[in-house]
Amino acid sequence: MEEDDSVSLTLHTLASIRSLIINADTPFSVISSVLDLLTGLLPRDDSPILHHVLKLLSDLSLSRNDLAPQIFESILSNLLRLQTSAAESLAVLASLSERNPTAAAIDGEAFATICIGADVSSRMWMLRNAERFDLPSSVLFTLFFGFTKDPYPCIRRVALDGLVYVCEAGGFDHARAVQGCYARAVELLDDDEDSVRSSAVRAVSVWGKVLIASKEDANRRECSDAVFLQLCSVVRDMSVDVRVEVFKAFGVIGTASESIILQTLSKKVLRAAGKGKKPQNRFSNESADAAAAAGVFIHGFEDEFYEVREAAVESFHSLSVNSIEFPDEAVCLLMDMLYDDYMVVRLKALEALHHIAHMGNLKIQETYIPAFLDAIVDTSENIRLTARNILKLAKLPDMKLVNKGVDGVLKSLEMYPQDEPDILSTLFLLGQNHSNFVVNIIKRFRAKLETDSGNKSEFNSRQVSAFLMFIISAPLSNKQSITSIPPLAFSYSLAMLGKFSCGLHDMMDQDTLLAYLAHCTTRSASSGTEFNKADTFLNAYRRSNADHSGDPVLLPSNIPAESKPMASKEELDPALKLVSHIQLKVKAAWLLLQSAFSKEAIRALRACKQELSTLTTNSSISNGALGFMCQYVHLIELLAQVWPHFENSRHTSTCRSVELELLMEELEIKLMEIRCRFTGLSTEVSLVMELVILGCLLRLYKFEICCRLSCKKRLSATVSQLELHHEQQCTKPSDFLTETKKSLQEIGSSGDISCLTLLDLIKKFNCFSPEQFTLSGNLQCVSAELEVPGNGPYNPVSFVAGLPVAIPCEIKLLNVPRNSRLWLRISRSDDTCQFVYLDPNLYNGGETEKRFMFTAVACMTPRAVVFTLQVSIGIECLFEDVCCRKHRYGPKHPVTYLCKEREVHFSHVSRTEAVL
Amino acid sequence: MAIDCLVLGAGQEIGKSCVVVTINGKKIMFDCGMHMGCDDHNRYPDFSILSKSGDFDNTISCLIITHFHMDHVGALPYFTEVCGYNGPVYMSYPTKALSPLMLEDYRRIMVDRRGEEELFTSAHIASCMNKVIPLDLKQTIQVDEDLQIRAYYAGHVLGAVMVYAKVGDAAIVYTGDYNMTTDRHLGAAKIDRLQLDLLISESTYATTTRGSKYPREREFLQAVHKCVAGGGKALIPSFALGRAQELCMLLDDYWERMNIKVPIYFSSGLTIQANMYYKMLISWTSQNVKEKHVTHNPFDFKNVKDFYRSLIHAPGPCVLFATPGMLCAGFSLEVFKHWAPSPLNLVALPGYSVAGTVGHKLMSGKPTTVDLYNGTKVDVRCKIHQVAFSPHTDAKGIMDLTKFLSPKNIVLVHGEKPSMMSLKDKITSELGIPCFVPANGETVSVASTTFVKANASDMFLKICSNPNFRFSNSSTQLRVTDQRTADGVLVIEKSKKAKIVHQDEVSEVLHEKDHVVSLAYCCPVKVKGESDDVGLIKQLSEKISETVSCADEIHESETCLQVGSFKGSLCLKEECVHRRGISSSCSEVKFLCCNWSVADLELGWGIINAMKQNL
Q1: For site-directed labelling of A630, which of A55, A232, A699, B431 has its Cα 20 to 30 A away?
Q2: How many domains does chain B have?
């Protein structure tokens, strides 16, 4: 490249330079001389050429990335000289610095100088792209703020947009600048140009927001009112864009005084608003009063353009979120929007109504019912969904409307079968919310149901399932209604369990639903004289419902973070959530059991056990609590196995009674275990003790006279112990306990026990009320590990027949409470056993974990070549109500074992060997 | 210059709208209507005020009709054909299409039915329509060299426009009738923000403020629905154009939604013909209709059928739109006669009814019998419903438009005097705009804007090409001003064009010298030791550079000293005028006579103080 600078470059030469640049094989030396040539041309400010030179440089930087910093530098250094094509060179710089973030930043002052000197089109480009240059926000602010004074409307608009950008980027809060910016934006609300006005509205809203935030609390309301009213003054602008922006801006401000809100809903100037306290508008010269807000929303809702209506409805929604009191007329206005021709508008209106319904303020009048019914059968899925959500929450004032509502939902089910699950849940909630009217509707359905079921060929399952869903919701809120429900309904519902639980998945799970239905079936069959258990169910159901209060549909997108309900602890931890679900399931299983569905109950309980076992130890639940849960569920399972024996007649075959005997035995052992093996029980004590009482009652009911006395004794001891516990904890004894106590006193006087009373008592038992189980975390599981080091079938301990033998045990104890008595139980397969007392001094330290060696002496060595002994550690149950055993040696109370039995192998040593 | 606004009709009344505005010498006539309530010579505007000789062609530059209602177009054939105006007549396309229908219908009713004297013939209508030049929305028309007119959408009825007229720098807007809220088939008025000297606005509902339109629509629909559900017949007497289409759209939609099968009838051929025009003039309807039109023409009513006279006594429910409105004559009155005695039936009266018509009687109270025009009496047992929609803007709409346009003056026409007066007070007090309510025949004069053209000097232009921002920090907020025009000075010399020059050029343009303010002081200096004048100056210069911070470059010559604009030289005079308050008795003291410009005020006094310390 031997070109001379003085030679004026023709386009032809430039074209050949370009071909050199884009050719990847051009040697570096050529490229660098091209670069020198081009950079040498820059200071000449020869504008026809310069345009091409810049283009070539940008191409060069693209193809040779390593030259980019050098090119950047040379353009930057010539920037101020390049007056005529400064904007173009800035564009090159911007693209360069975007590709190489390391490149030096462009000086803010230089940028401002160029911007002020540039012609209109370049100036507009620069202002639009100012964000691309890493300029300090003060420079940007000054530029944008200044150019709001530009005579060209396009520049004013871009400058206002820039100010919005600066504001949204944040960090700019000099009080005077904010005030000045807001005031300037307000001035431009009167601009002649539509586009400037719409940008000005945006600027007023964002800077107004900053201004409001900068005020002290006392002035804040006043300030936000002033901004709101300022925006109100442009609501009647003739430009659609401006109107859309204004309504969006209301959403941004989001709040205003109640008097102003009321005024926005009426075109007539309200006396209270007009003559009351006029918010002083210190931010512009004219005084604004609430009259400016007259009918703002009426105008918005009636607007010719759907964009405006949509924005109006949306901002109305966000205002209703933030204002506590929103008058009924407002709701009427909103309901009118349900007839809008545009889907978006209808949807937005429904969403706003849903929000209002969620606040509990929605009263649907007859006038608007057609609107809702239309929405329910709308072609748009979103609209149908939102309309149903409203209906789920709505309270309809009379029978006629409820009927209409139900009909509408049924019609929509016919038209859109894909919505079935949600429609079912809508019907369920609708039925529940209108319990007073349900009975009448049930009558209507009942006839339909009976004819349908009689005629199997025309069994319209979808419709019937909808009827059923509606019917079965009734007893939840209205106990009396169960009498009017044919038992048939519940039996059919059981058949549709899968479908129903799918619809109600966010309210209850299948097991709970099953339990409920089963319960209803029995109650309804027994003519519904007693339906107290429904309360139990209802509690469980409500509790599980509470988890779903954070329904995302209810929360508008722009709701402030603080108004969201605090996420409950359970939501945060899946493990805790699972446990609470399991509690509910256990409860449901218990209800199932009582309704004589013992097999299902046992299955459900086993599933619970399995779920619990999946919980790993590192979850937030303590091991103790987890262990307790497992034990407890196991106990309930045992009870479930025992239960059918009591449901049936009192006298059964011997075979069954043996089975029962075994089960009862196991139950008692497990009860003992759960009592002994956990420390730190608080409210759980009553849970366990009630089970003990139940066990006693069961025994009393089922077994022969021989053990009655001891049983009775134990029963009264346990009852009084539990009473004492309640007194100490200041908790309320359960119905079960008080009932038992009452009957005990009766028994005590007569000495005779009526089986019927017992049965009644047993049925009273209320399994697992969640209040009693807090998962306090103080629960500790008492456990032990026992090891005989080195011992095994091939490495037995030697013994001499007839002589005691020492067993060296390595023992690890966990959480063993003070003053407990530990025993080593050494047993032989022939059921002879021996207890060895463990010296408390060995383990009564302060630590929770203790390891020590202990040598147990086994006395009963048989005459055999080899034999095995089972060794385990047991804890003596020192409870007042537990009767003493009559052993000469060994523990006086029953013993619960803390570890698995360890087999210890022994082999006989011949005398000669011993001598050797 | 001034703008004169002469009100020929609709001044403090409703009917025969006609306003003649003179802007910078150009006369424009807006609307040429007739009064529906008058039968005498007052029916038409008094055109003789304009020209005694009847030479309207030379008096009036153009005539603009805003929409096809009789009180806006009714006198047009009379004015053009009978009075002999031959100048240009402007109206929008729909108005041009629909006006002849209206005029012909009216002529027929007046002449054929009532047997009145014929004021214009069908031929008149046809030939007058030939003179009409159609206007499109936002189309600027140069009527002559100076006069520009432009039409804006006004809502109200199909084809209604507001008219912007500009002569030179003076501009006005005549609104005609307009509606600020959209209805089913028409949009809301839409106009740009213009610099106006005068706004002439209608004020039919000068004191009414209407609530949301939705409840009103609902009431109407429910009244009709209840009637037909009960097996009754609903009669809606209305004029063929406007409300009939509006209500019909409403009913048609409702019928679809509620799945009602009751027939809706249109009575006259005129309405059918009008519907045809509506179907064609979709671009003049509301946004909603325009968008729906892509899939289905909303004026293709699904449930609407033609009505035959035999159907009057047909059993079963129906809805009937019958012309004319107000039950003043014709078919609607005939149907009313048959249907009014049944309590099942309903008469829904849309809009305003002129006093004296049956419609007015029905609305003003609950009459049990009504006298028809020919003396027969009819028992009225049917339900009466007043449909509360109006295609006119309410008071708030007038205020909103005025606020948006912010004209310099307002003239209110087309309204009732008491309510116009209260609106006038409201406009004057709330918006601070002078407002006039002239009666017929009165003229309102307002000043008009005139701009003076001025040349600008090159220097001023050059300086103006770049912004010159000045930020000022007032007590509470930051302000910005663009100073570029602030540096200009307007120079108007005798017999020359005005010129704007930059302030630096002023003296040159005016051939005046620059005046400079300078300060002078003859400062006493003490001579230390035995030094001569040069030594003294050196001493002083050292002293100054030590003490005065901003004295950077000190130039010394023999007896002079210069710092910036500050000059000091030894004063040899016995009595110097600048020497004040110091006696020259002391021989040790020499004087340095100093002067400096006002720009270096601080510096000068600083140096003086420094030298005085030397004393």
Answers
A1: A699
A2: 4
DSSP A234: T
Q: Is B512 a catalytic residue?
A: no
Nearest to B473 among A176, A298, A306 (CB): A176
**Do B281 and B166 sit in the same domain of this protein?**
no
Residue numbers in B near A305 (CB within 8 A)? 287
By the 8 A CB rule, do A799 and A909 touch? yes
Taking residue B516's Cβ as centre, other Cβ atoms within 10 Å add up to 9
Identify the sign of the CA torsion B284, B289, B295, B301.
negative
- A184 touching B, CB under 8 A? yes
Reported as a pLDDT band with limits 50, 70 and 90, residue B133 is very high
b (16+ CB within 10 A) / e for A492-518? bbbebeebbbebbeebbbbbbbbbbbb
**Of A660-664, B36-40, B524-528, highest mean pLDDT:** A660-664
Asked if A646 reaches chain B (Cβ–Cβ under 8 Å), the answer is no
Same domain, B396 and B304: no
CA angle, B232 then B235 then B236, to 5° = 140
Question: Which range of residues forms the domain containing residue B248?
Answer: 213-386
Give which of A238, A267, A367 to mutate to test B binding, by max B Cβ within 10 Å: A238
Residues 6+ apart with CB under 8 A from B613: B543, B547
- Token pair in block for residue B363: 């609305």
Q: Measured between alpha carbons, how far is residue B576 from residues A574, B581, B614 in Å?
A: 101, 11, 20
Q: Provide the residue count of chain B.
A: 615
Same domain, B218 and B348: yes
Per-domain boundaries in chain A: 364-450+460-536, 574-647+657-767, 782-908
Q: What's the ipTM?
A: 0.83
Model's pTM, two decimal places? Answer: 0.69
Residue B324 main-chain phi, psi, to 5 deg: -85, 170
Residue of B213, B403, B404 with shortest CB distance to A302 = B213
Report the distance separating Cα A61 and Cα A76, nearest Å.
Answer: 14
The residue from B447, B468, B487 where one domain ends is: B447
A236 touching B (Cβ < 8 Å): yes
Structural element, H or E, at residue A430: helix A420-433
Place of tokens 């299983």: A589
Tokens read off for B23: 């802007």
Q: What are phi and psi of B534, to 5 degrees?
A: -65, -40
Strand ranges for A171-330 from DSSP E:
none
Q: Tell me how far CA of residue B515 lies from CA of A44, B271, B518, B598, B605, in angstroms.
A: 42, 83, 10, 11, 22
Q: Are residues B293 and B151 in the same domain?
A: no
Show Cβ contacts of residue B131 under 8 Å, excluding neighbours closer than 6 positions: B80, B86, B88, B89
User: B212 to chain A: nearest residue by CA?
Assistant: A298
Domain boundary pick from B409, B431, B447: B447
CATH code of A782-908, in short, is 2.60.40
Domain at B240, CATH number: 3.40.50.10890
Contact A133, A165 (CB under 8 A): no
How high is the pLDDT of residue A37?
Answer: 85
Identify whether residues B459 and B439 lie together within a single domain: no
In this structure, what CATH number is given to the domain that contains residue B584? 3.30.310
B462 to chain A: nearest residue by CA? A117
What's the gap in Å between the CA of B181 and the closest CA on chain A?
7
Reply yes or no on whether the pLDDT at A915 is more than 50. no
Q: Is the CB of B404 less than 8 angstroms away from the CB of A237?
A: yes
Residue corresponding to tokens 């007052």: B42
Which residues from B are below 8 Å from A174, CB to CB?
A: 478
Q: What is the CATH number of the domain that holds B71?
A: 3.60.15.10
Higher-confidence residue of A612 and B392: namely B392
Closest residue by Cα to residue B44 from B418, B414, B440: B440
Please name the amino acid found at residue A282: R
